[in-house]
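As described in the Methods, two query proteins were run sequentially through the folding procedure within a single session, without resetting any intermediate state between them. The first query and its resulting structure tokens are shown here.
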Amino acid sequence: MKFHPLSKLFLVRIYGNRQLKTLPGQNTRPTSARVREALFNIWQGAITDCRWLDLCAGNGSMGAEALCRGAIEAVAIEQNGKACQIIKQNWQQVATKEQYFRVIRGDIRVKLKKLQSQQFDRIYFDPPYAGKLYESVLNEISAGNLLSSEGEIAVEHNPQQWEAKPIETLEICRQKVYGNTVLTFYQKASPSQES
């Protein structure tokens, strides 16, 4: 991350050596380059033409990366108004005319209810580590049937602050550890495993 003195913003580099803006401080902590690269290596081949949902989107770097790699649609939910402006700027910079994106400002649990008629192929969820959003948001994704049948959710968390477990119709399919950061991946549970 590099500081840009004129704009009082920080810059983050993503796929294709593109620079994105991000707000200073930890309120919208961007996913580290190491974790971001690892995630897109894991999901390599699944991003082109996918529908991407970015939850607690921060500066939108994950959705921007997905757009750069060929996602057909990206939707972000973020509570911080300034961050929403940054996401829009960042996504306008990388999106093509064929790609659709929108940024939704507000409480993630409320805004997810309004997406219930949609499904997404890849969902990235990176809330404040010390927050209490994990289970309620995963339950909302499950209840709203927001994950496509072949889709996956990646949840970024610190294992000392939240322990991942199966949620409603979602099962854990793998976990990857990067220092103090864990990515827990969920997919739809097979009918025999749903409770």
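Immediately afterward, the second query was submitted; its sequence and tokens are:
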Amino acid sequence: MKFLRDIRIKPFDFVVVVVLFLASFSVLAFLPSQKAGAMAQLRVHGKVVRDFDLNKNQIWTYRAKDGDYNKIEVRNGKIAVIKANCRDQIDVKQGFISKVGQTIVCLPHSLVIQVMSGHKNNEVDYNA
């Protein structure tokens, strides 16, 4: 208590600081948890090329007319680009994703894979 008197902090001030500190982290308890998706959508240049059911293990290769390719694997409810012929390989390095809203992007090929819930929501335009 001598320390508190020396810095002129009253005990009630200390209680207020602790309560505010704990309250700032209580918001985390109310955040929605990300749910695993049921499907993923592959878009190239903004156009839907294919939908993937994340419950079915599969390997599929997207091939463009100019020779670009991305090998896509769905395994155990997750999706990833496992091989591509782009220079940076960012899409391959990203690994498997499974939560709603997560995306894999290959900028050189203008390719986007996005995990979706699989449930139709009239308030959301998935093709935008």
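The radius of gyration is 23 Å. We note this only descriptively and draw no conclusion about the first query from it.
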